[in-house]
Amino acid sequence: MQFTLPFIGDSFQRFNKLVFEGKLPTPCFMLSRARTFVGKFEARGKRDWMGRTHWNYVLRFSTAFDLPQEELEDTILHEMIHFSLRVSDRRDATPHGPNFRAMMDTINTRFNRHITISHRSDGSSSLSSRRLSWHIVGVVTFRNGKKGVKVLPRIEERVLEWNR
After folding, report:
1. Which are the contacts of 20, defined by CB distance < 8 A and separation ≥ 6?
2. Cα 11 from Cα 75, distance rounded (Å)
3. What local confidence, expressed as pLDDT, does residue 126 receive?
4. What is the pTM (predicted TM-score) of this model?
5. Which residue ranges in the chain fall short of pLDDT 50?
């Protein structure tokens, strides 16, 4: 299953009532094809002419993964925890600090969920496997006579320049 806007919206409203007692305002929901994250919470501040900051909150989810419905719901809950801590002004010094972990543990215990800090899947259900990448690494001698290691660009002409 992949994220869809109706699924995200319905899940958000259901979890907001059940888990967060209806206290969370509805943020913007966005879809992405990113392969670097499954879900992401974003807070964007904009100052008005009087110097006050107005916040826009976005929950962004990637459609690049095919995951079971329970994992999608746990990802939504994970991002809702970030959102809840932000709007209640209980932020941690780190993204997954003690307040986040305490709330995550409470939700997991009370509602029999499996929210985690990072997404780990067996990979069998993923549409996109980890992309292979390659680098050209060369040992170079600098003008001062010292030797070093340089990651070279993947352009043949540039590699040949470094070789000269």
Report:
1. 80, 84
2. 11
3. 40
4. 0.69
5. 121-130
